[in-house]
Design a protein that fits this description.
Radius of gyration: 28 Å
Helix content: over 70%
Number of helices: 3
Strand content: under 5%
Length: 123
């Protein structure tokens, strides 16, 4: 005698799916938070570099005759030195972050390639 499997009520199916999504979110939350913190620092350096470069042009190296005359004086002013520091340090940090991203990506490709080779060797 054939017995048809009993169907679950629709509400129970939806509840189980919601519980699964919540469980996956709880497992992924620490990873997402660490990625956001790293990306936040990266975005902060990009914004600092961008704003500092534009402020330096406006306040310390203005494109005018008066800007050219005042340039030797203003270049050693504290705010111009701080803006130069932010530009240089921001550029170095952004360069370093590209190296970190490239290294991480290469490591993932190596792991993927190793698993592909191992799977091919089993066949």
């Amino acid at each position: 005698m054939y017995m048809r499997p009993r169907k679950m009520p629709r509400e129970q199916v939806v509840l189980e799916k919601e519980m699964f999504v919540v469980a996956m979110f709880n497992k992924a939350k620490p990873l997402v938070m660490s990625v956001i913190s790293v990306a936040g620092i990266y975005i902060l350096w990009i914004l600092l570099h961008f704003v500092s470069a534009h402020l330096y042009i406006y306040y310390c190296a203005h494109m005018s005759l008066m800007g050219a005359v005042m340039s030797p004086i203003s270049v050693s002013a504290p705010h111009c030195r701080a803006l130069r520091w932010a530009i240089n340090t921001g550029a170095n940090s952004i360069d370093a972050m590209w190296v970190v991203l490239g290294t991480w990506l290469c490591s993932k490709l190596v792991i993927l390639g190793a698993s592909t080779v191992a799977a091919a060797a089993k066949d």
